[in-house]
Sequence to fold (139 residues):
Amino acid sequence: MRQQVLLDTGPLIALIDRRDHHHSWVTTELATIQPPLLSCEAVLSEAWFLLQRVNNGRETLVELLKSQQILVAFQFNEEVESITELLTRYRSVPISFADASLVRMAEKYPGSEVLTLDSDFLIYRKHKNQPISVIMPEV
Fold:
């Protein structure tokens, strides 16, 4: 079982929304992952917005947090400098605030993998030059 998996917005939405194109892929991958999934407030904020039209989507998100299937494992106030540097370095990609937070989490959690649908994580680097391990569908 995989551990220390960092959760991006796309797979979180796909997990909750059964109509999502990637729902079955995400549920299959989650069967190989030891909970909890680690994430950040930026991902949760994006998900909250995107789940507004998904029946019981927001309630399901809250339940995943209450049951500690997802843990917020990142404090932005401790990472302002690092996040600012990442936002500047990858502005041409461009990088979102949530993605920058996940890149920083990948730096802080050695051996972690990012569960994502976003191919930009193949471009981003932790510690400036190290590829980030990702779990994503094949393109």
Summary: The domain at 5-135 is CATH 3.40.50.1010 (Rossmann fold). The first strand starts at residue 5 and ends at 7. The first helix runs from residue 9 to 16. Residues 91 and 116 are 20 Å apart (CA to CA).
